């Protein structure tokens, strides 16, 4: 079995790459390079408020606890295309031939894919992990907004077919977590739930047993953009006492939910 993953290079992305690599004969990784959190926060031309710095360091700390602070790609991951963020759409398909001859294609945490590549991935029924419970939350920072809106039961991941629209493809299932001790760890544990469940379903050849469900846009609660994540919102969030058990899970709202019970 051959798998191609299009992703980024933060600890959670590396963890997922290593996990996928364990279940296939040939693994191909297209990895967009981003600045590490410390570097992003310390950029001279990047003026972040203390509140946003505090928020992002909490995210980083949770990621390190869930996926490992010094995690590296396994040595046997050798088929790697490392590119700068935003450069993927500029590459012609012929330059990606080595990476486009797989049985499964998975996208997680990459920049927005367009041009010929998105057409190819749609044709190949590529799977996308959207961290947010669609169709309720779409766009950016979806799990942040679910918590901010006092909807902890709608924190999770959506595994769906990739599409030209953002987070809009037919849904196969949702991934959630039962670990409700801390908002940041809770959110990050749902990322791990998405990883473990997807790898398990691909390995057992069960991923396509799920009947894809078209998204009902009438159920959308919020479509968030980067500009929505402003200083006022972050300050308010950090000052909140978030009750992660304020609302019970309603499986009728979710599609084939996969629940992660332990890290």
Notes on the structure:
This protein has 263 residues and is of the alpha/beta class. Helices cover 31% and strands 19% of the residues. It has 7 helices and 10 strands. The protein has helices at 11-21, 37-42, 50-67, 115-123, 142-148, 183-203, 231-239; strands at residues 2-7, 26-33, 79-84, 104-108, 127-130, 137-139, 157-161, 171-177, 222-224, 258-260. The protein has an 8-stranded mixed β-sheet. Strands 6-9 form a two-stranded parallel ribbon.
Instruction: Summarize the main sheet.
Output: 8 strands, mixed
- Counted by DSSP, the helix tally is 7
Mean pLDDT: 92
Overall helicity: 25-40%
Write the layout of secondary structure elements.
Layout: E1 2-7, H1 11-21, E2 26-33, H2 37-42, H3 50-67, E3 79-84, E4 104-108, H4 115-123, E5 127-130, E6 137-139, H5 142-148, E7 157-161, E8 171-177, H6 183-203, E9 222-224, H7 231-239, E10 258-260
Parallel strand pairs: 1-2, 1-4, 2-3, 4-5, 6-9, 8-10
Antiparallel strand pairs: 5-7, 7-8
Helix pairs in contact: 1-6, 3-6
């Amino acid at each position: 079995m051959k798998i191609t993953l299009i992703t980024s290079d933060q600890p959670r992305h590396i963890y997922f790459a290593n996990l996928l690599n364990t279940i296939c004969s040939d693994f191909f990784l297209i990895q967009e390079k981003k600045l590490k959190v410390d570097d992003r926060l310390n950029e001279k031309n990047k003026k972040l408020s203390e509140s946003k710095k505090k928020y992002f360091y909490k995210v980083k700390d949770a990621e390190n606890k869930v996926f490992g602070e010094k995690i590296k790609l396994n040595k046997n991951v050798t088929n790697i295309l490392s590119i700068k963020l935003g450069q993927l759409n500029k590459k012609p398909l012929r330059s990606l031939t080595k990476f486009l001859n797989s049985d499964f294609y998975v996208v997680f945490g990459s920049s927005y894919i367009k041009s010929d590549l998105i057409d190819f991935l749609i044709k190949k029924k590529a799977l996308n992990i959207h961290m947010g419970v669609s169709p309720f939350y779409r766009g950016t920072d979806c799990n942040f907004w679910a918590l901010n809106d006092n909807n902890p039961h709608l924190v999770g991941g959506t595994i769906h077919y990739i599409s030209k629209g953002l987070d809009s493809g037919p849904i196969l299932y949702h991934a959630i977590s039962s670990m409700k001790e801390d908002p940041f760890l809770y959110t990050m544990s749902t990322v791990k739930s998405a990883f473990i469940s997807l790898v398990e379903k691909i390995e057992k050849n069960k991923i396509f047993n799920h009947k894809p469900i078209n998204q009902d846009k009438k159920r959308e609660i919020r479509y968030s953009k980067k500009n929505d994540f402003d200083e006022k919102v972050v300050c308010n969030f950090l000052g909140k006492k978030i009750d992660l058990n304020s609302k019970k899970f309603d499986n009728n709202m979710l599609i084939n939910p996969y629940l992660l019970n332990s890290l």
